[in-house]
Amino acid sequence: MDEFVNPQLKSIIGEAIATKLPEYASSFLQNDEAQLINIQKIDELDWYIGVYKKRSSTLSALQDLKFKFFGLFILYAILVALLLHQALQHLVLRRLHSLVYAVSSFGQGKLDTKFPEENKDEIGTLNGSFKDMTIEIRKLIDGLNQRISEKEIAEKAANRLSKAVAFSGTGVVITDENFVIEYVNPKMLEMTGYPESHFTRAPLLNIVASDMAILVEDIDIDLRSRNYWRGDTLIESKGKQPIWVSLSVSPIREEGGNITSYVASAQDISFVKESQRKMEQLAYFDTLTGLANRTFFRMQLRKSLALAERGHYAFSLFYFDLDEFKRINDTLGHDAGDQLLIQVANRLKKRLRSEDTIARLGGDEFAVLLSGIESQEHATDVANTIQQTLSMPIMLGNNEVIISASIGITMAPYDSLEEDQLLKHADLAMYEAKEKGRNTFHFYSQELNAAANERLFIENELRIALKEDQFVVYYQPQIDSRTQQVVGYEALLRWFHPTEGLIPPDKFIPIAEATGLIVELGEWVLQESCNFVVRLTEQNRENNVSINLSARQFKDSNLVPTLSKMIITSGVSAERLHLELTESMLMGNVEAAITQLHQLKALGISISIDDFGTGYSSLSYLKRFPVDILKIDRSFVQDIPEDSNDMEITAAIIAMAQKLNLDVVAEGVETIEQVEFLQNNNCFIVQGYYYSRPIPESDLPDLYTKLGEVPFKKVM
Ligand code: C2E
Ligand code: CA
Ligand code: CA
Predict the structure, then answer these.
(1) Residues 6, 8, 12, 18: what is their CA dihedral angle, to the nearest 10 degrees?
(2) Where does ligand 1 bind, in terms of residues with CB under 6 Å?
(3) Tell me: the pLDDT tens digits for 366-402?
(4) Cα(652)–Cα(36) distance, integer angstroms
(5) Which end of the chain is more exposed for a tag (fewer CB within 10 A), N or C?
(6) Are the C-beta atoms of 560 and 599 separated by less than 8 Å?
(7) Bridge partners of residue 544, in order along the sequence
């Protein structure tokens, strides 16, 4: 059997028995074919049962199963792979894809790319990180963009600003911190006419015109102390008049506050200045002559006084009017008068310095402010110059006229430092000059002031005197030297002031005249005189009364009606009334004077020319006026018999008066020689201290006694 038993099987069985394994499986080869053997022990029998079978047939089912299983496995694997793919697709790839898509789209510049919502796994974290990153990037880009656009805006604004400066209608100059010019805009070049090179690296204040030298210092000080200046000034321009600009210089500061540069802007205000000048011209200058007017003059005076007050400055003030201007105006007409004023103004402008102020204060009144004049000698020179220039003949149309001026001079600060007082002083001095005669000048003095104060006192007292009856009329007889009889009286006003005593008419008449009080006062004298004549008539004394008329009274249109009424109410016979006028009162408006005289004569009144010979009229001129009597002035009579010249004039006046059929009265007769001389020359009516001073009515009886009281006889 042994030969039949397969050795391999034999060992297997041996092994299986040896091991005593409950189950034992192994394989062996039989006929080159693998045999599978399984040996089991049945313990109850203590048997070993082995079964063997060809491996190939035993395992064919397993092989089948193996194939089936493998197929299944493959299928499963595919399924799993598919599932995995699906899951991967769903869980990873798609998300990765959309992340990649988002990142690449963001990368391509689509900044608004939306990142997918994600879970909190790695991809989600990655996604989140990407998302955060894009947010950061986006912020960064936004910031950058904003900065860029801000920069653009700023650039644009700067550009606009620089264009605005370049095209500005205002001249602009920019300097460094040391006021050295670095930039000038085109307007500035256009305004000044200079090329840019003129300004480059030049000091800023070079632009200010040299006329403004004083101001430059001020600006400089201001700029250095306050870094700022604003005001009107003239700036230099090429070949043209300097231009008025409103200039403002301001600093440009860095953030820290340091000044890096200055900007000066100059607004052309020449047109404003021009209209201002025109307005000033109207407000401050006389349209006829172009001289300063009263307002401007006073402004200048104030300025000069302010200067003088500070010391080291003196000036003199001239006041004058033209002698006889009124006559020229009246005879040649107002146009000629205007021409005259213009020519006078031109002559003054030519002869005086530009720093002097020449003003026309009104009418023919002029004033001159001479700066820097300290001595009377210097002022005298100027007064002489003015008088010389004015004394040259002036052509007015076809007429040549010669004029002169009476100049009043006051010196500041010596005479006064007060505006009104200085003007008053100059005025006083001028009146004094006039008193002295034409073509003179006079300096103000303390005495003049005293006289002025007295004038003021009298003016005030006159008003009171009229109310309080402080006046009395005195009468000076006019006597026929042949018969020693009184033929008439001259009414002469007397003022008895309660404290000042007798104030002579020469003192108060001119003031009454100047203030207009003379009209009322004169009317009172007329009334008194009429009453006096009536009383004389009542005593059978048929004497005339000569009443002095002032210029103002004579011109008064109420004179004739007033007199006419007075004559009627007082009952005086008009032929007893003589009115004494002076020659000068008939000059000026000759026609009006003639009319007035005719009206007076029509009332029955006689007209007498007082102070004859002192005026400028000739006898032939007098022929035009309806006058009756000439009174030879006292000045001719008083030097008889010493002055042969005066005697000749007196004789000539008497002779010519007789030719003209005028009566002659000699006044101021003080001596018998004078009486005799006059008698020898056929002048018999005399008035003077030789016979009687002016006396109050109450003294008349004494006069009559003195004269021997012979019955009167009417001569005139
Ligand atoms: P008049 O009209 O020339 O008056 C004559 C002046 O000579 C008077 O001065 C008179 O007193 C003075 N007189 C007369 N005889 C002599 C003489 O022999 N020797 C001297 N040395 N003087 C003599 P009176 O009264 O002082 O008057 C001065 C002037 O005042 C007058 O000058 C006249 O112009 C004016 N006046 C006087 N009364 C009136 C008046 O009622 N109305 C007006 N408007 N003027 C008056
Ligand atoms: Ca008189
Ligand atoms: Ca007289």
Answers:
(1) 100
(2) 476, 491-493, 504-506, 509, 522, 525, 548-550, 610-611, 634, 667-670, 687-689, 694
(3) 999 998 888 899 999 999 999 999 999 999 888 889 8
(4) 206
(5) N
(6) yes
(7) 488
Q: Which atom of ligand 1 is nearest to the CA of 694?
A: 11
Asked if residues 553 and 582 have their Cβ atoms less than 8 Å apart, the reply is no
The CA distance from 110 to 102, in Å, is 9
pTM: 0.52
Separation of 455 CA from ligand 3 center, angstroms? 23
Whose alpha carbon is nearest atom 42 of ligand 1?
548
Partners of 492 in the β-ladder: 474
**How buried is residue 347: exposed, middle or buried, by Cβ count under 10 Å (0-12/13-18/19+)?**
middle
For residue 232, the surrounding DSSP H or E stretch is strand 229-235
Mean pLDDT confidence for 469-497: 96
Distance CA 314, CA 378 (A): 12
> How far apart are alpha carbons 108 and 131 in whole angstroms?
15
Tokens of 25: 């499986």
d(Cα 120, Cα 129) in Å, to the nearest integer? 11
Q: Decide: 345 and 290 in contact? Cβ < 8 Å.
A: yes
pLDDT of residue 260 exceeding 50, the answer is yes
Q: Can you give the pLDDT at residue 619? A: 66
CA atoms of 366 and 441, how far apart (whole Å): 14
Residue 492 alpha carbon, nearest atom of ligand 1 = 38
Cβ-based neighbour number of residue 543 at 10 Å: 21
- Pocket probe mutation, ligand 1, options 466, 492, 640, max atoms within 8 Å of Cβ: 492
Q: How many A from CA of 607 to the centre of ligand 2?
A: 12
For the stretch 641-665, pLDDT in tens is 898 988 998 999 999 899 889 999 9
Tell me the pLDDT tens digit for each residue of 544-558: 999 999 999 999 999
- Those residues whose C-beta lies under 8 Å from the C-beta of residue 610, and which sit 6 or more positions away, are 548, 580, 581, 582, 631, 633
Which residue CA neighbors atom 30 of ligand 1 most closely?
505
